[in-house]
Design goal:
Number of domains: 1
Strand content: under 5%
Order of helices and strands: HHHHH
Shape: elongated
Helix content: 55-70%
Oligomer: single chain
Largest sheet: none
Low-confidence stretches: 1-12
Number of strands: 0
């Protein structure tokens, strides 16, 4: 077993990262990727059913496109959180050369803490937005469902991302590599 395999096994690796932190990151990844897959299937299924209805029955499904839009909103925000988990988000590489190489570890931690703070800021304002929709009992057009359950994925994605960044700032060994999500090891 490689030394870094302790993250996957849930034990305490030499890096000092506790096993629970790796388990939390893996759990987030599994939940978010599963919900994203279901949302993608919802987009695909709704649009395909609408297409079949239009082509073969002469009439599309009334709410299919609106349902697909709601699923796409969920998918887009979960995609943000999953990109954070894979460290596949946009970065400014020129900033890497502005500080001495010896500062890289500290700068990565500072970047993770800054990103966590930014995500918490966005989570707060997302919460306010969703609370407003909840208070108003806002409903969608066409597909008359309450909007706040769909909008609440914003709060989830920003809180989840803040947690990821915070854990990676505390224990850099938890950072995802270029080809695997948090806590998973390439083979």
């Amino acid at each position: 077993m490689r030394p870094e395999a302790g993250i996957v096994a849930g034990t305490l690796p030499p890096s000092g990262a506790p096993g629970w932190a790796g388990r939390v990151l893996r759990w987030l990844y599994r939940v978010e990727s599963t919900v994203a897959l279901v949302a993608f299937a919802g987009v695909t299924g709704a649009l395909f059913a609408d297409l079949i209805g239009r082509e073969f029955l002469g009439q599309g499904i009334f709410v299919a496109q609106r349902f697909a839009v709601f699923c796409m909103v969920v998918l887009a925000f979960l995609g943000f959180a999953l990109a954070v988990g894979w460290r596949a988000h946009l970065g400014i590489e020129i900033a890497d050369r502005l500080t001495p190489r010896a500062w890289n570890a500290a700068m990565e931690r500072l970047a993770d803490l800054t990103a966590a703070a930014g995500c918490l800021f966005l989570a707060y304002w997302s919460w306010r937005f969703v609370a407003g929709s909840f208070a108003d009992q806002a409903r969608g057009q066409g597909l008359e469902i309450l909007l706040w359950p769909v909008q609440s994925v914003m709060v989830w994605c920003f809180c989840s991302s803040a947690l990821r960044y915070g854990l990676c700032a505390a224990w850099p060994a938890l950072r995802a590599g270029a080809a695997q999500p948090h806590g998973e090891l390439s083979r």
